[in-house]
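User:
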Amino acid sequence: MLIPPQVTLVPNFILFRTLGILKYAPQMALWLPAFWGGAFGTFLLRQFFLTIPRDFSEAARVDGASLWQIFWRVYLPLAKPALAALAVFTFLWSWNDLLHPLIFLPADLDQTTLTVGLSLFQTQYAGKWTVMMAGALVSIAPVIVVFFFAQKQFIEGVAMSGVKK
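Assistant: Predicted structure:
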């Protein structure tokens, strides 16, 4: 978590270029690293799974469940709030990223992201604040929608954290 994403930009670029991802599917270079996890996701889920009592897995083991069944039927349903939080954070960081799309995507405006388009929009319409704020409102609408869909999971996570086990 101490290494900023800007430091890993060059090694990722070399890796994606060597694999041919930048040539055939440059958009994949933006969403593929999000599925690799990352230090924050690993730390967040590790801390969450440490809060789940071992009694749950021991009870499932007594009932005859395998390790995969314990994970799938006990731990994963309990982890929905943490997974929802991680999904919202990952989406937010990916959506607001400006540097990676500037490096990985071609200069074609039809294939770029909304944040790059907004930065170019800012240079084109420098004095027209109403037009720029309308573009900013359009850019934050998906983030608000994702938050409202995940809000139920956040509330469940807060409510479950106060329950004695």
